Amino acid sequence: MHPLTMMQLKIDDRILLKVEKPAKYTGNEWNMVRKPLDKVKMRFAFCFPDDYEIGMSHLGMKILYHILNKRDEVYCERAFAPWVDMERLMRENDLPLYTLETYTPLSEFDIVGFTLQYEMSYTNVLNMLDLGRIPIFARDRTEGMPFVIAGGPCACNPEPLADFFDFFVIGEGEEVINEIVDEYISWKEAKESRTEFLKRVSCIEGVYVPSFYDVIYNEDGTVKSIAPNTPDVPDSVKRRIIKDMDSVDFPEDIIVPYIGTVHDRIMLEVFRGCIRGCRFCQAGFIYRPVRERSYEKLCEIAKKSVQSTGYDEISLVSLSTSDYSALPDLCNNLIEFTEKENISLSLPSLRVDNFSLGLMDRVSKVRKSGLTFAPEAGTQRLRDVINKGITNEDLVSSVRLAVSGGWNQVKLYFMIGLPTETMEDVEGISELSINLIESCRDISGRDKFLNITLSTACFVPKPFTPFQWEPMDEIEVLMKKQYHLKDLIRKRTRNIKYNYHDARISFIEAVLARGDRRLGKVIYTAWSKGCKFDGWDEFFSFDKWMKAFSECNLDPKFYANRKREYSEVLPWDHIDMGISKEFLIKENQKAYEGDLTRNCAAGCSACGAQVYKTGICAKTKRGLIYGENTEV
Amino acid sequence: MAKILRFRFSRGEKLKYIAHLDILRVFERAVKRAGIPAAYTQGFNPRQKLVFGLPMSIGLTSESEYADIELSEDMEPCEFIARMNEGLPEGLKVEEAVPRNTKDNIMNQITAARYEIVFEVKEPKSLFEIHSMVYDFLSREDITIEKKTKKGYRPVNIRPLIYSVSAEKTAEDRFMIKAFLSAGAENNLRADLFMQAFIQETKLEIDILSMHRKALYASAFNEWKNPFEVAND
Ligand code: SF4
Hints:
The complex is a heterodimer of chains A (632) and B (233). With 632 residues, chain A is α/β, with parallel strands linked by helices. Chain A has helices at residues 13-16, 52-55, 59-69, 84-92, 122-131, 176-190, 194-202, 283-286, 295-309, 327-340, 354-362, 380-385, 392-404, 423-439, 441-444, 475-492, 503-513, 519-528, 542-551, 556-560, 581-593; strands at 42-48, 74-80, 111-115, 147-151, 167-169, 207-208, 213-217, 223-228, 237-238, 266-269, 271-272, 291-292, 313-317, 344-346, 371-376, 409-416, 451-458, 496-500, 575-576. In chain A, strand 7 (213-217) and strand 8 form a beta hairpin. Chain A is globular and about 75 Å long. Chain B has 233 residues and is α+β, with helices and mostly antiparallel strands. Chain B has 2 domains: 2-101, Pseudouridine synthase I, catalytic domain, N-terminal subdomain (Alpha-Beta Plaits); 111-225, Alpha-Beta Plaits (2-Layer Sandwich), CATH 3.30.70.3190. Chain B contains 5 helices and 11 strands. In chain B, strands 1, 2, 3, 4, 5, 8, 9, 10 and 11 form a 9-stranded mixed beta sheet that branches. In chain B, strands 6-7 form a two-stranded antiparallel ribbon. In chain B, strand 2 (50-52) and strand 3 form a beta hairpin. The longest helix of chain B has 14 residues, at 20-33. Chain B is elongated. The relative contact order of chain B is 0.20. Chain A binds chain B through residues 13-14, 16-17, 21-23, 26, 28-30, 256, 258-260, 306-312, 341-342, 344, 364-365, and chain B through 14-15, 17-19, 22, 25-26, 28-33, 40, 44-46, 58-59, 87, 89-91, 207, 209-210. Bound molecules: iron/sulfur cluster (SF4).
């Protein structure tokens, strides 16, 4: 018997009935996996470092939960960051953070795995470890304690969190997680030491054990080198990907939460990756190449999922659904099924054209009020810089189509602070938006002008993008741009509602995104001062973060606002995401020339992902620009 | 065989932490999983024709909730019960079902509810003391509490909504209040509000341990009726 089957907490009504939405802490949802603990050899706690309602909307967690629990000898359970009301009661009542499946404290697990979806959840990771009674620093964990691991997009620069995790998993988890489990079971049977286990997993492709690498810094604070300090450890860690999306397991028996979550529906993952290559977008690079699921497979998954969950809503998930090569076939087949079954189908991230509008008329969930466009920049010049290949004319004609189709509200997304941006570009945002309203005047009808909700995010340079070397705009500059835009809009029209992000949150995000190992102590200090749920405006405390930086003698501007040279060793250079640095440099140079790069479907630009020998790289034209010598 | 069924269900400990709208969704999904031929509303966002007798607040267990469901095909009540229970999670169970022929849906028919509330007193009290508190409580003509509404707090006199109250001792320092309260679409008095009033008036210091709904009633010709009895009026 697993020695830990003893420890099961009882959570009293005197706690549960005092918190908001107690069902976040009680589990027992439909399709929750139950297992006889005496048959289980390895217990895995999957942790999402944010609120239940967000975590339960996350597809990656559903996938890994399913993959792990398919094995009889493995039990994967879930834990989320308790909301502040619950955390207070847990601490007052001396109750450790537990999993929803068996009410077992995190400290009792073999492996505790976090998914890192956004930088602003880092302090929640520390808080969950602390609540789960696991030493926060990896070096303080001793024999018999859990291994704490992490994956997800932010793991592509694992360095700021290197102090806290025993190891990281780089890339897609479906296969590598099983290899880790196998290694764990055999290591446990061999009764070896903790370090032995880390040595074993460091041989698995995609696993990064930070304690096996030393970082040396230059005098100016930049990184001099990152190199293994242990024999047989690879110089660089390669990202794992799934080659064939049709044969990899996809969960049909997903957990159905009792309370509403952010995405409370069946999520059909249509494809991974994105062909577009917008230069600011990390997701557009780190998930390459595009790999599609066949529409037959997707329809099969949809039907089985409805049967097993009872959900009445399906949503297509991808970075850009319009780019799916079999979209008409998929939609026709799906709609036939959903209409019969009274299921609504939502189609986010569709480009607006005649095809998609026709489609939206046929599906129920797209309310006539909300269509979304993401021009990202206000002028053609700047859109060329970021390789966002849409023109003013495209936008006007899409929006006109939408308005004549009965939509009178659109959402527009832009970014502020993009490289080379001037005030003229910022003004272009209001220019473009007002122009859209004007150009729809003739068709929108007198009393219902087009209404626009305009949002601007602050541009945050991210690793593995062509902008990874760029300085972020200073907070004051971003705020000046925001106010200027706000002013311009207020003077000209009442049909635009303008929202913008808190530049100070984006600033901390920028520091963490491109930080190095020294930031570990800043994150720890910020957490000790009470930072958590930093992505939530109501909890974010800029002052505490700034105090943490100064106590640790580190300048956040060094990370966020400094222009880096191509020759500089970047803190994430030992992570190989399958995108070559030469390609990123070329893209960075092309950005300054306003030169566009074609998308993968139009032709290959040899970004490096061809090494995976799968997906779109294997199908598209190559050799036209600089793919000539590329081996396939 | 019937196209509209009225059913009684129970909600146990495991599912008492979810709010009324969430319960509604659990049922809708169970219907879908069970492949029960539900009738849907017309229009943009079709919904199952499923109506509940009385909302259930978080924390309340019940052995006697009622709902009406309209089907697109005839179905035997016993088959409905069996299939629903396969699709329902532990903690919710359909206990009985009958055809409904009346035009009135269950929501409009419910008028009263019986509750059992168990609490622990912080300072020892005898059953006699509790009894006299109940007696005093019921003797008032006006029991005004601040009720939370969408626009903030509003004073309401709940005395007319209290039909009867009694108390029992269940263990050392533990008592059970049995309350028969007005319920339904109009004039609903929730058990937690009732207890708020009881605490406010008696100044008792207690921890509420459980709140349970024993029964729901419809009224017809000045008599309390089981909702099944009025399914065919
Ligand atoms: S190698 Fe070519 S086709 Fe493949 S992802 Fe990169 S640019 Fe696209």
